[in-house]
């Protein structure tokens, strides 16, 4: 590819990249002053599952701050699958108190919707309060349990995550 062709190709990709970096409008309004820490793509056996972006205040991500994890799905998923996969991952990470997991699964089941390709599910870490969720930019619920928030966001952000490359991309260390 010659130099001119490369520049044209990169210029065509720019709008796609810029769109990937945007939070849903209402989330951006409700949580002003956030900056993108990083973004990444989850693939499973080569299939594009979702794109994720992490938005923070300040220079560096810490698990103790308010942050926003936005997921834009590349396929349709039933809420029950999102709930079950989330619980399985929390369990794998050591959050294995089964009565607590059952309670969290019930709460997630009441909050999480079915998602379609291209839709956003956004989670906000609310230190000391829990995790707040938005679907397509609209508030859909709060799970008022700081332990739940730690377990839920650990799926992506804990050093023991199943997807360490995605974690590095999200927290900006890739």
Please provide a brief summary of the model:
The chain has six helices and six strands, in the order ααβββααβββαα.
What this model shows, in words?
The chain has 174 residues and is α+β, with helices and mostly antiparallel strands. It contains six helices and six strands; from the N terminus they run ααβββααβββαα. It has a six-stranded antiparallel β-sheet. A hairpin with a 2-residue loop joins β1 and β2. The N terminus is likely disordered.
Low-confidence stretches: 2-20
Global mean pLDDT = 88
The H/E string reads: HHEEEHHEEEHH
Q: Give a short account of the largest sheet.
A: 6 strands, antiparallel
Q: What structural class do you assign from the helix and strand content?
A: alpha+beta
């Amino acid at each position: 590819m010659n130099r001119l062709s490369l520049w044209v190709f990169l210029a065509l990709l720019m709008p796609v990249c810029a769109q990937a970096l945007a939070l849903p409008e209402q989330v951006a309004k409700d949580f002003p002053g956030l900056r993108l820490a990083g973004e990444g793509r989850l693939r499973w056996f080569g299939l594009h599952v979702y794109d994720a972006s992490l938005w923070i205040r300040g220079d560096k991500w810490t698990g103790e701050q308010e942050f926003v994890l936005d997921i834009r799905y590349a396929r349709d998923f039933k809420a029950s699958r999102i709930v079950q996969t989330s619980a399985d991952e929390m369990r794998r990470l050591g959050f294995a108190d089964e009565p607590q997991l059952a309670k969290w699964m019930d709460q997630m089941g009441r909050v999480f919707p079915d998602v379609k390709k291209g839709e956003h599910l956004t989670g906000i870490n609310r230190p000391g309060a829990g995790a707040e969720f938005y679907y397509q930019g609209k508030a859909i619920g709060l799970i008022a349990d700081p332990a739940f928030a730690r377990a839920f966001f650990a799926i992506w952000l804990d050093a023991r995550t199943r997807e360490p490359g995605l974690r590095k991309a999200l927290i900006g260390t890739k």
